[in-house]
Amino acid sequence: MTVVLPDLDPRVRWSIRILDAASGDVLAEHTPDVMCETASIGKVFLLIEVARRLESGELDPAQRIEIPDEHRVEDSGLLYRMRDQRVTVEDAALLVGAVSDNLATNALLWLCGVDAVRAVGPELGFEHTSLHDYIRNERTPDLPWTPSYGTGAELAELMRRLGAGEVVSPAASARVLDWLAADTDTSLVADALLLDPLAHVEAEYQGMVLRHKTGSVSFARIDIGHLSGPAASVAYAVAANFKDSDDDLRAPVLDAMHAIGEQLRAHVTGRARDDERFA
User: Fold this and answer.
1) Of 53, 106, 119, 232, which sees the most CB atoms within 10 A?
2) ∠173-78-114 over CA atoms, to 5°?
3) Beta carbons of 252 and 265 less than 8 angstroms apart
4) pTM exceeds 0.85 for this model
5) Highest taxon of the source (predicted)?
6) Taking the mean position of all CA atoms in its chain, how far away is CA 127?
C-alpha cells in the first residue's frame, strides 16, 4: 500500500517526508529539505536533553524546577495556571509532552542551558533542524528569529530514530516517546486517526499507537510523529508555513494534513477502503 499526498496549496511553504519506520524508505515527500519555522517542535530536542541527563544521573527526576522571572510565559500549557508551579523535572517534561507547556519548557531550558539544547540537533547530525530559543511572550527584532526551525527530512528521521531507540540510548528514546505519548493535540495530521485525544498511550483505534509532537502559531502548523499499526509503522513530518501570505491559510493546510493522516491510517492499519474506516 502506498502513501499518496493530496494536492498541496502552492501559497504554502511545505516541508514533508514520510518514512517506513522499519526500513527508512521514503514513502512520500514534498520539498523535504525546505526549512520551516517549526513553533513548538523544537521542544523535542529539549526533551531529549532532559532524558539524557536523567539517564546519566545529572538530573534527579524528583528535583523541583525553578522559573526565572525573565522566562515567565503563558499561552500554551497548564503550568502558568497551576497554584503550585514548582513541579518535578519529570513532571515538567510530561507537561511539555502532553500540552506543549511553555512555562515548563522555559524552566527546563533554563535548567539545562539553551546552548546545550541547541547543540542536540547538530550532535544528532541535523544541519537544518534545532531548538533555537526560549518561548517568548513577544518576539522582538533583537531576539532570535524563531523558537525552533527544521526540515521535513530531518524531523521525520528524528522520529524514526526515536522509534528505533537510536537517540542517545534505547532508554532515553523510550523516555522521550513516553512523554510524547500524552500529547493531547490531535488536531493536525493525527485528526484523521480518530484516536481519543486524552487517552491514546496504549494501542487505541484500529490498533494504532501514536507518539507525536505538534507546533502551531498564527502562520504555521507542524506535526511530526511515529505511528504504528497492525500492518506497518511510519515516521512522518509535515510542516506548513504561510507567513508571507496575505491570507490566513490554516483551512487548506488543515485539510491537507487531515488527508495525509487518512493516508497514514490506511497504510499502518492495512484498511484502505473508506467503508472499512469505522469497522
Assistant:
1) 106
2) 50
3) no
4) yes
5) Bacteria
6) 18
Q: Which residues contact 261 (CB under 8 A, 6 or more apart)?
A: 188, 189, 190, 191, 192, 193
Return the closest-CA partner of residue 3 out of 20, 27, 30: 27
246/255 Cα distance (integer angstroms): 19
Q: How far is CA 203 from CA 90, 118, 209, in A?
A: 24, 33, 5
* Whether the predicted pLDDT of 119 surpasses 60: yes
Give me the CATH topology for the region 13-276: Beta-lactamase (3.40.710)
d(CA 21, CA 25): 8
Q: Helix, strand, coil % (nearest 5) of the chain?
A: 40, 20, 40
**What count of residues does the chain have?**
279
| C-alpha span between 92 and 94 (Å, rounded) | 5
End-to-end CA distance of the chain: 19
What is the residue-wise DSSP string for 157-206?
HHHHHHHHT-SS-HHHHHHHHHHHTT----SSGGGGGT--TT--SS--GG
d(CA 212, CA 236): 9
Q: 59: number of CA atoms within 13 Å, CB side?
A: 25
* Set of cell numbers at residue 208: 494504532
Question: Percentage of the chain surpassing pLDDT 90?
Answer: 87
